[in-house]
Structure formats: C-alpha cells, structure tokens
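Quick start: read one record
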Amino acid sequence: MKVINLTVWVLATVLLSACSGDEGEASPPIVDEEELPPITEEPSPETPEDNKPNIIVFFTDDQGYADLGVQGIRNDIVTPNIDQLASAGVRMTHGYVTSPQCTPSRAALVTGQYPQVHGVDDNRYNPLPLGVETVAEKFSAAGYRTAAVGKWNLDIDENSHEWFALNYPGLAQGSNKVGAVPESVKEQYYPTSRGFDESFSGYGNKYWATFDLSGATFSPKWITVSDHRIDAVSKAAVNFVERNYEEPFFMQVTHYAPHIPLSAPDRSLEQFSHVDNLRRRYALAMMAAVDDGVGSVVEALKHKGIYENTLIFFISDNGAPTGMVQKDAPVNDLSEPWNGSLNTPLLGEKGMLTEGGVRVPFIAHWPAKIPTPKVLEKPVSVLDAVYTGLVHAGSAQSDLNSLDGVDLLPAMTGDDAYLDDRPLFFRFWQQSAVRLGKWKFLKVGDREYLFNLDTDAPEQSSVLTEQKELAGVLKEQLLHWSSTLKRPVNQQGLNPQEIKWYDYYLPDAH
C-alpha cells in the first residue's frame, strides 16, 4: 500500500533536494548479446529455483540500539557472531521498525505492510485479522518452504480487547478469557493457519509446533521442552535448516529476549558475573545467548553448503523499555519495565516515536550478493527487509504491489540515494511521525516537532520555527497517510504515560 500524494511529494522532494542526491534505484547491468552462450539443441540452463536465496530474519524482543558490540557504543555487550554478520555485510545505522511495541511491529514483519493498514495499531488490537495475506503465503507462492520459530504474538491473548468485545462480549473482565475460547478458534490465528509450513512458536517452555528438537515432525500440536527459552528457539532454527536445506526457505527466528521476565542460561549469566547491575547483567547474558544461537544457525548453513546464498537480516522489534531512570529492581519485579537493555545515544524508549523507540539494531548479510562490507546511513525499514527477500525470491509483481517496502540490495551494494526520497511513516497511540531524508516531523497530541537527524543531538532541539514550510509539507503528508488507514486519527489528548515520557525526554523542545 504505497501512499503518495503527488503534489506533496514533489514539493517535499524539491525542498530536500540538497540532501537527497540522485533519484531512483540502481539500474540492472546491460548484457552484451555477443557474450551470451549459444543456444544448444537441448538447452539446460540453471533453473531459477537453483538461484533463489534462503532468507532468515532474526527478530529480537525489546533490544535497544546500543546492544550489539559492532555498534561501538557499549564495551560490556558481547555479540561476536552477530558482529561478524555486520562486519561482512551491511550495518544500517538508521534502521527502523514501524512501531514501538511488540504486536504491531511483528504484524509489519509478517505482512510486509504498515500494521495500521489492518488495524493492528497497538497490542490491544491482536490478533492479526483473518484474511490478511502474510509474507509466508507469498514466499510459498514463490516456491519456498516457510517456518515461524519463536515468539509469534499475533494470535488471541488477554490484550485482545476489541476482538473479545466483538466475538465473546459476555466474558467478564479479569476472567481467563483466552481459556474460554475453543482451541479450534484459537488455532485459526496460529502460524500454521497463516501460511507457515512449519512452526515452533511460543514464549517459555510451551510451543505450537510441527517438529520437536530431536527432528521428529508431526501435525501441529502443543509441546513442552526443558531447554531454556532462548536455546530452544535457536535449536529449533538449526533443526529447520538441517531438514530443509535442499529447497529454498524463509524462516523468521524471533527470540523472546531480552524481554522481561529476565532469564538467561546459566552459562551466559556466569559469563557476566562481574557486572554489578543485576538487570544489565541479565540483558547482557540474554543477548550473549541469542548470539550463540545466531552462531549455531550460521554454522548449520555452512555445514549444509548454503551459507553463501542465504540472506540474513538481524533486527529488533522495538527499542528497550528503560523506565526513564533504568531502575535496577529485582528481576522478578515485573512492575519495573527496564529489561537491562539500552538505547544509547538515542532519545526515548519503547512506546515512544522518538528514535529510542523505533530505531533499532539492523544488519543484513548475503555473501553471494554483498561482497563488500558497508555501513548504510540512510533510513531503512523492516518493511524493506521483507520486500527485499520477496523480490529476490522471484515473487510475482502482483504479490509485491500491496507491500510498503523497497528493495534494499541496490543501496547495500551501490547507490543509496533513492532511500532519501521515500517517506517512512509511524503512528502509535496519540503520536505520529514521518521521516523523509534527514528530516523527521513528530506530532505528539497537539505538540509538534521538526528534527534534523543529521546533527550530533538529533532530537534535543526542534527546528520547527525555522523550517515552518517544510514542517507543513511533512505534516500534510503524514495526515494524508493516516487518512488511508483502517482506524481514523485519534483526536484524544495524550494519555498519562505519554505525558510522562515527553515531559521527561523533551521538556523544552516543542
């Protein structure tokens, strides 16, 4: 659903021409017909199937921008396997998710569209509506085997207030509402009913699965495992690779980490026994365990001879919830939001549309197509990761038209100027924003800001007064985009949490 108001678009492009560079994606190389091999009587060209890359998206949970070693921000984080992917691939310093909260962010990953298109504006609007086509279905149509491994978070849960009001209005608030729904109804929203061939989906020790960690396969059912939740997901991902390496596959690996409740394998906690701050220690240990898992998947790819032609993305689903003051409360105190992760040096946290809420660790790695390491400093989105995968999977154009991303390969291997010329949109609660090139317009209730993100302290000072015309153009484009979504713009004032956040982080910027 690519939304462009032509008049606004042209004006914005003119205003920003100084920072946008050349327009358009890199053109494909021109092949000299004389260089083509002669056609024999019985041609045996390499089939498109042989060239299709495998695609893996690692999607962590509440991992802040600072928490990869390769980011060079913190010296206490230890993630050598993920760092290696970045060092041999592309690290994107302005990589975004669509939302600062779990459910809508995951809806974007699974659909390739802004979650608000389907009304999944925040966690209250679970589950992902039936009938919405998923990227798994699109990959299947392109000849791929598909798997959802780890946290799903797009089915019916206790937060599904609107769904329950529409489907089970008689259930009392505070009751075990999910338990009252027949399993046959709940199953319609599980990955195996949303286009995924295989599933190992869950949070702790219980998983909706089509296989177990020994490699046995079966019809979808609930199973329990004894492994730590991080290790279980990593082992399941390796298992899927080892059984499906002979055909192209798409797999999302969504570790439930470093989200609270904080928990890490003993080996990882011991690795950081010297860290005095308890919540930070657990976050470091959880990320080290995730890193171990990424390394094990990479080793499986190498062992099966498919490493070179596997496109890997590593992204977090949103920024870390810091609770503003990063209180080091006991790990079993779930009333304290900080999970030990950090968004440094970005402003804000999970739930906010400032950079700390939506700009996240973002890496791509594909040896066959990205031979030269690169740091990409242009705005990119998780929507682009999905779109890139589908383009190079050979998806039909009809399967791409409804998506909201762009192909990142030209930017990752050469010209990235076209990324300056397309907007990225955000809307959450009473907050909305648009980023275009180096500019970001942010609307929080009746507060409005315009930030130049190329400065050393990009969200410390608004330049809206100095750039009123530009701010007006971006605001119009943002409002136009919002008008195309399932839910209208919320006209209510800021909720108490938003007031607390913005008064704390941006007291004088508006």
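The radius of gyration is 23 Å.
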